[in-house]
Amino acid sequence: MLNSHLSLSLSLSLSSSSATALLPRAFSPAASALRAVAAASSSRWISLRPSPPRSTFLRVRGMAELVQDKESTESSGAAAAAAASGSGDEEARQHSRIFVDARSEEELLSLITKEKDEGRLPPNVAEGMEELFHNYKNAVFQSGIPHADEIVLSNMSVALDRIFLDVEDPFIFPPYHKAAREPFDYYMFGQNYIRPLVDFRNSYVGNIPVFDEIREKLQEGHNVVLISNHQTEADPAVIALLLEGTHSHIAENVTYVAGDRVVTDPLCKPFSMGRNLVCVYSKKHMFDVPELVEMKRRSNTRSLKEMALLLRGGSQLLWIAPSGGRDRPDPLTGEWYPGKGSLLDMYS
Ligand SMILES: *[C@@H]1O[C@H](CO)[C@@H](O)[C@H](O)[C@H]1NC(C)=O
Ligand SMILES: *[C@@H]1O[C@H](CO)[C@@H](O)[C@H](O)[C@H]1NC(C)=O
User: Fold this and answer.
1) E-assigned strand segments in 1-118
2) Are 73 and 122 in contact (CB under 8 A)?
3) Nearest bound ligand to CA 222?
4) CB of 69 closer than 8 Å to CB of 122
């Protein structure tokens, strides 16, 4: 029973890569870790098709760069000590709560500058926060929803607050991370943050019966593995938002296989914390830093073990984007198609 994996291919035609004003990076490819699971793939297509969010998209150049810079500027042992002590214990985390108290956009931006000037925020992170603010603001305003200014201020102050908290006291993701719902509900935070960016009137989820079938299979104890050609930071939220009305428990129960970037970049981490994740280091970047190769290998082995344990327990819904290929619009029609070198090529 438990080893009959129902594999589905999922066609997501989001406005792809940077589906929101959020973070353009894909959950990195995890192909090697996943081959075993994906082998049984019987391609079936679900169309889950939000129309492109009405927004211009953030192009935070080189998130990886950002993280590296941050790491080097962070040589003050404080962060390392915090990391060592604070991993995973949300309750124990100290928090200065300055951003959530901001009453205006100007105040929010001046707080970023202040924290940077006083050395509590690495300059590149501060810059990323400002950029995030402006991109999010533009996207929400373009959506035409009422009270855009309040929505931007309240969601951004929470987002910046969580990002700052992570700089002060970095969260360390274990190989298997359960969505953090208490005391702060990171899941709902991500949902609310992304919600204004989805054009619900022009979005639809196709093949609803397939989701009914998924629900049944999960109830019977089967595991379900969803294989997607590409994944961005925003996808979990967008998928969950679109399924919220009809299949909310499915939305909340997905476990995403995540690459290292989404669990190391301070701008991404608060969004990742609200999701169930199996964290893997991508093969592509395995050798980027020679001293880290062993650690990454060991960590991937642990992640694989965790994944095997999960699957053995049954009733798991896993989302995997094995190749990380980017979707691109067709130059003639402007329609989005799965990227080359993506899953289609790997498993067809
Ligand atoms: C964030 O945006 C949502 C709309 O998605 C809104 O309902 C909410 O009040 C905003 N603020 C917070 C803190 O969630
Ligand atoms: C699915 O989510 C619901 C709540 O959203 C929870 O009660 C249930 O235990 C979850 N099931 C699994 C298999 O994680």
Assistant:
1) 6-12, 45-49
2) yes
3) 2
4) yes
Q: Is 345 a catalytic residue?
A: no
Please say whether the dihedral angle defined by the alpha carbons of residues 96, 97, 99 and 103, taken in this order, is positive or negative. negative
Active-site residue, selected from the candidate residues 169, 235, 265, 327: 169
The pLDDT value recorded for residue 46 is: 35
Q: Whose CA is nearest to atom 12 of ligand 2?
A: 253
What local confidence, expressed as pLDDT, does residue 54 receive?
31
Average pLDDT for runs of 10 along the chain of length 348: 32 30 28 23 33 30 30 38 43 65 93 95 95 95 92 96 94 94 95 91 86 94 86 80 88 89 89 93 84 91 93 94 68 73 41
* C-beta 252 within 6 A of ligand 2: yes
Q: Whose C-alpha lies nearest to ligand 2, atom 3?
A: 249
CB 178 less than 6 A from any atom of ligand 2:
no
Hey, what's the torsion of the CAs at 232, 237, 240, 241, to 10 degrees?
Answer: -120
Crossing angle of the two packed helices 63-73 and 123-142, in degrees rounded to 10: 150
C-alpha closest to that of 173 among 72, 295, 260 = 260
